[in-house]
Amino acid sequence: MIQHILKFRLSALSLAFITILAIAWQAGAAASPAPAGTILLRLPAGANTTALHLQPIHDLDYGSYRWLELTPADYARLAAANLPHQISDGLTLRLGETTIHTDQPPTTTQPHPNTPDLHLIQFIAPTRATWLAGLRAAGLEVVQYIHPFTYVVWGTAGQVADAARSDHVRWSAPFAPDYRVLPAYRNLPNQPIDVNVLLYRGANTAAVQQQIAALGIPGRGSHILNHTWEIAAYTLTGPQIQTVAQIPGVYSIQPVATSGGLRGEMSDQINVNNHDNSNLAFPGYPNWLSSVGLSGSGVIIANVDSGADNNHPDLVNRFIPCTGATCGGAASSSHGTHTSGIMAADGSSGIVDGNGFLRGLGMAPGANLVEQVYSPTYTQPGGMLRLMTDSYNNGAALSGNSWGPSGFPLGYDDDTLQVDIGVRDADPNAAGNQPLSYVLSFMNGYGGTSSQGTPDEAKNIFTIGSTKMQTSGGSQILDINDLSANSAHGPALDGRTIPHLVAPGCYVDSTYPSAS
């Protein structure tokens, strides 16, 4: 049989599924301005500063640590005493690719001072529940947290001013239209472009959409994401983007991302450390699974891809029926068949390579698969969440995703937000939370800095980079801990470390259509 070793965005699919074998996952103005140059820091609770005679601007006890805000002179004394501490950049807020220094007065103004709209309020230190209660007591609705110590709130300018009188509030400002549209999209030409508009549901999204319609802009559908957000699709020109961004209740406007796409036993053995001192893997993965009582039996995995060969001899016993608009049906592709095999191929064909490794054996050969196709659903309003809803409603405990909407970094965009929402609650229309673990192969970004795509910057998912596995001729590469050239590198655009894990992802032997 012709050897097909495909170089795709597959690393996540070969590591994460050994994890799920054990368990199916259920898985205004500054109110208290500080002198310029003050230092915010965490100090261990046991650190004694009495002899230093500090005069902190703020000194808050959080049990396991103290939070101090010090003048430069006081900080110099603390540093000279060699007391352990951690400095916080709590006076710098980044929004819409803009850096805001919250020890300075706000530079934005409120275009609708008497109308409820979105605003920003920053606390002086890590949030306490009583401080949030104070915001609500002032009539504000808490919408979204933004690091550091900042909240997007909904209310009038007067309510914000009332809340900002608290000693615990450092700074407040309107949530300006420029924060709702990234710089790259603020001066687009007068040509139509498909966009997603993220709406705060507390603003009465029906009324917001009516305001947009009154501008002569028809909607292309909307989808409720959770109790906070609804997403609506429009076709806007560059100037219209600027106009819509000023409507109260609009949180963000982002062009629909479409630049992305699709991201044997030997790799199984590498993942579970079954190799010799030279890192050379040896056959025997089924025996290892039996010895630890782990096969994936009883677990359903959603393979969200571009279709798979359900009749492949190593997969035919793994696929179960799928119900829903995103199910693959008769769709088949080399990529989807390959990723399906990495997840759960059972080796029934018995085909081995020259070293005795079963070629059609996945990480979880006892698990079942449901097949979904990501396109065109992902381009529709709420499409990323809709894919996860169908995964959950077909019994999946997790989904494997070797694809993404964008092939370049967009930060924490609305597609990424939808995935994070879906991990906690994949079906917003059902009572309670319906959790779904989401495994993502990191972008084929080929090195560099921040070469990820989307939703690679999500916070609630497993994002997996790629390591070396085999040569194009099928021989194992012994440098099993080396990143492969195809793997993207982080960090996230907000500085967080991504990816979270790595696994074999460059030349992995797996199933291919037509029994190959």
The percentage of residues in β strands lies in 15-25%
Number of domains: 4
Number of extended strands: 24
CATH architecture of the largest domain: 3-Layer(aba) Sandwich
What is the approximate shape? globular
Q: Which fold name fills CATH's third level, the topology of the largest domain?
A: Rossmann fold
Brief description of this entry?
By secondary structure, the chain is α+β, with helices and mostly antiparallel strands. It has helices spanning 11-19, 72-80, 129-137, 157-164, 177-180, 205-214, 238-244, 265-271, 285-292, 334-344, 383-393, 414-424, and strands at 5-6, 39-44, 58-61, 65-70, 86-88, 92-95, 98-101, 117-123, 141-146, 150-155, 169-174, 193-200, 219-224, 229-236, 250-255, 261-262, 300-305, 368-373, 398-401, 403-404, 437-441, 462-468, 501-506, 508-509.
What can you tell me about this protein's structure?
This protein has four domains: 5-26 and 259-509, 3-Layer(aba) Sandwich (Rossmann fold), CATH 3.40.50.200; 39-88; 109-175, Alpha-Beta Plaits (2-Layer Sandwich); 180-255, ACT domain (Alpha-Beta Plaits, 2-Layer Sandwich), CATH 3.30.70.260. The protein is built from twelve helices and 24 strands. The chain has helices at 11-19, 72-80, 129-137, 157-164, 177-180, 205-214, 238-244, 265-271, 285-292, 334-344, 383-393, 414-424; strands spanning 5-6, 39-44, 58-61, 65-70, 86-88, 92-95, 98-101, 117-123, 141-146, 150-155, 169-174, 193-200, 219-224, 229-236, 250-255, 261-262, 300-305, 368-373, 398-401, 403-404, 437-441, 462-468, 501-506, 508-509. The strands form seven sheets. It has a six-stranded parallel sheet, with helices on both faces. It has a four-stranded antiparallel sheet with strand order 3-4-2-5. The protein has a four-stranded antiparallel sheet with strand order 9-10-8-11. 49% of the residues are buried.
